[in-house]
């Protein structure tokens, strides 16, 4: 069955409002602003799309059609050749979800909700706990999937439970995964990275606080990101993970080797931060990958440290 037929069949079985595009440029959907075309790009636009998700994931699996889940595109580099199969864009699956009235101090967000939108919503309720995420690009689903971390805090610290669409015995079903004291999570790792699943929503344990203090902390973090140049050029933030065994941040290691400003094609190690790779305007995905490989090789040669990429390289790299 062709991809077009698969999509048509899923909509027939589970009608909902969706935006369907063929040969969609992925550079328009990533913070790096690079990447070739997706064969098919599907973006659900209504709140009744769960049955459609189930139909699509089930039939795509049956027909062996590759399916890539896209959040905010904030931590990926899509190949210049694009992505084969289907890209399911979750960025329109957003907003706050109603919670159980018996559960206090919990906010639940759909996975496509932007991180900043979730932070602002928590502030409006005078809930504290998400301030460390203020100014971070991406979506709640992506942040949960990668256990987003900054300012000495991480998603697992405040995560209560996650609803996922997962496969069991060849059938997709919605399952709630309770998170207790960050079990199953570690530095930039979550259990969902090892699962064949779609994150539907996430619930956060928060605390009532002073709204002005919460807002002040949020603005401080956003200003810090601004001063560090996070928004000056298209990028994905940190290019490599930090490793405590190295004794110092990855950015400092790269800086001490005199590599800030090092450039290949249109990709460059930011002159203002050793662990941020930027698109200076005309970078290709291959430029970014080649630059990161070169940096990793230089660091290994001079220090013995093996850097682990934080950004994910996805799509057709063959």
Q: What percentage of amino acids are in beta strands?
A: 25-35%
**Cα end-to-end separation:** 24 Å
- Mean pLDDT score: 94
SSE ordering? HEEHEEEEEHEHEEEEEEHEHEEEHE
Counting helices, strands and paired strands, the structural category is: alpha+beta
Output the number of helix runs.
Answer: 7
* Strands, count: 19
Question: Would you give the CATH topology of the largest domain?
Answer: Uridine Diphospho-n-acetylenolpyruvylglucosamine Reductase, domain 3
Main β sheet profile: 5 strands, antiparallel
In spatial order, strands of the major sheet run 6-7-13-11-12
- CATH class descriptor name of the largest domain: Alpha Beta
- Overall outline: globular
Runs in which pLDDT lies below 50 for 5 or more consecutive residues are none
CATH architecture of the largest domain: 2-Layer Sandwich
The total tally of domains equals 3
Rg, nearest Å: 20 Å
As a percent range, the share of helical residues equals 25-40%
What does this structure look like?
By secondary structure, this protein is an alpha+beta fold. The protein is built from 7 helices and 19 strands. The two termini are 24 Å apart. The mean pLDDT is 94.
